Amino acid sequence: MRKRGSLVYSLPGVVMLMCKFISIVHGQQYTEKTVSKVTFNERNGSLVSALFVLGDSSVDCGDNTLFYPLLHGRLSLHPCNGSDATLLPQLIAEKIGLTSIRPFYAQNGSLTEVLGGLNFGSTQATIMNQGSFSHQSLNQQLRQVSESLQLLQLQLSENSATEFTKSSIFFLSFGKEDYIDLFLHNSSSPMLNHDAQYFATILVNQMTNAMRYLYEANARKIICLGVLPLGCTPRIAWESNQTSNGDDINGNGCVDNVNDWILEYNRMLDEHIVQLNAEFSDAHIVFCDVYSGILEIINKPRFYGFEDTKSACCGLGLNGAMLGCISTEMACNQASSHVWWDLYNPTQAVNSILAEAAWSNQPIPDICRPLTIHDLVNTKT
């Protein structure tokens, strides 16, 4: 076992042996020529070999969360409409030309599946090390990444494994669940006795350590998302109505106090990523500000084709915020007219706009910096 900062990661020898055994059973022998084709990605003509995704419900609908929805704690069984294909990383993967990204727990341990990219994300995943049997924290997902990269080292030459990792993109989206836990489930938490900067510092330091660890594992292209404006989500607004008669809610239906805490986290994360890019001159780490993107849509809903910025498409109670999406059959008829799908998650229509903005700077400019995702994809490592 090895420690670095707040991260703890290890790879038991038994896992390595199991991976090797499985690959032998499947009869997979990969030549340098085969791996070279994958690395330069003749499948899609890009310079990206694969996409590896880590995160929370912003990247996983529950397919990669053990025993979900039996062991869930968000009052919503369907955090997205249909499948992971409606979420931001999968929409970006389509633009890159990658279509075979599988949930980590849906794979059978073959090298082919690792080469196709994996989604390690888990609904309710947190940055703080609070993972349980039903979902995986940031540290737990990093250990799964380590296992997968070890499989590459076992089956490929060291140079091929390194080049494959360097030409892949690692996509991180965390933080939302930490703030949900703070504001809705830990009202007596000592964290609330501190200010927004204190809590953000704890979270951002762990995210920075995670990106450092990925860099040491030869990752050179990393996308890191900020947290969306949680203060505008149906559940947060509903809770504010219950506790303060809605006095904290502004004209757009957002709780300013909650958003102020989120803004501090995003600001600090952005600054740390700038520092990491300066420190690692051969790496390209992109910060994507989904907060400003969604707030732009909320401020100008008609311009972007939305009618409802406050209520969940799939939920019960005032603005669909008392109980989340327990069945997709209860969803509204036109999800594309809603900003919010359920208690805390945007609709596919919003994610599609964010994906296009992240890719091309249109229709919302400067979401991702210092590069667009398109530029990141076409940058040589």
From TrEMBL:
Keywords: Hydrolase, Lipid degradation, Lipid metabolism, Signal. Pfam families: Lipase_GDSL. Residues 1-27 form the signal peptide. It comes from the Eukaryota. One of its GO terms (biological process) is lipid catabolic process. GO terms for molecular function: hydrolase activity, acting on ester bonds. PANTHER family: GDSL LIPASE/ACYLHYDROLASE FAMILY PROTEIN (AFU_ORTHOLOGUE AFUA_4G14700), OS12G0126100 PROTEIN. Belongs to the 'GDSL' lipolytic enzyme family. This is GDSL esterase/lipase.
